[in-house]
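Lab notebook, bench 4. Still working through the backlog of constructs that have no structural model yet. Next entry is a single chain of 361 residues. Request: give me the structure tokens for it.
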Amino acid sequence: MTKTVLDLNGDPLDRGRVHGETMAAQIGQNIERYLKRFELLGFDRDAVLSESAKWSEALRPKDTVFWEEIDGVVQGSGRSLDEITLLNVRYELLVNMMKSNAQHQATAMDACTSFAVLPERSKTGETMIGQNWDWVKDIHTMVSRVTREDGPDFIHIGETGTIGGLQGVNENGIGTVINALLTPDDGKYPYEKPYRMRVRDIMNARNMQEAILAVCGTNRSVSMNFLLAHEDGIAIDIETGPDREAFIYPEDGLLTHSNHFCELDIESEVVKLWPNTMYRNVRLERLLRQSQELDSTTIKTAMADHFSHPHSICAHYDENEPETLRLQSNHSIMISLNQRTLYITDSSPCESDYEVYPLAA
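Model written out:
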């Protein structure tokens, strides 16, 4: 396997400590790379870490178990709580700091293209979800395979130093992938649960009701799209603004989404930054509909599509753009909810094959 896999067990502090000790060097590199990115956008190190401290103080009471695991990462890595918090709330922190400073440079966020394939369209009769994760270069990620007594076992991939994850599935056959959304209302409710805490809440879910509640149970600091699915062939896309939601359901066994609001009646700022969102989801749906029995081969072909390259489903850096707007597909992921298995490319799907990462070690 190309991705580092951490098998984590024990109590939250133990899990975090092993994470921090094992990945200390990569955690340090992620911290420095994000601090440099904030600096590129006009925010100095002290201001970023000072704001990070406010987030940890406000969020800890909302989920003490989550923050106990972060404490373990702090202990294991030898980095400060403010630095580890920065990694775990970097998306919300950046959006909120941009909203409070009109002089910041325009920046891209995690721009992904997601899908759900239900059993009636799957060659193997499985429920599958997945996406390309489009973000900046040189950010370390890892796969966490978590066995625990304080909640369902799960497997997910996330940025090294974070514990909430980006995409994953739990032992109850519940999975999620996420897409960035932006609206002028972002920042209206500061210090609400960041999306990483909500992804962890989804991994904690016993059923779909609890998974939906993880997304919709409270207001949000920023907008985000959550594609939730269950192995029994249920998929729901939830577009969220700070205090509103809209729900999108599959048609003929397929569902796709990118980075703009398709159902929620709310202004979207994303098209001002990466207008390719307006065709990526439509293009992906069209490609997937060309096959009546989708499998890893046909899905990979669609995820490696280069229509409108480099601003394509399989994204690549556009050297003609400002540095703050450049994105690439760092990995592509398919998740078999029935098999509790992740299939992940090590780089863009046009350059590498999917490797298998099962929940069962």
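Notes after review: The radius of gyration is 19 Å. The domain at 9-99 is CATH 1.10.439.20 (Penicillin Amidohydrolase; domain 1). Flag for follow-up if needed.
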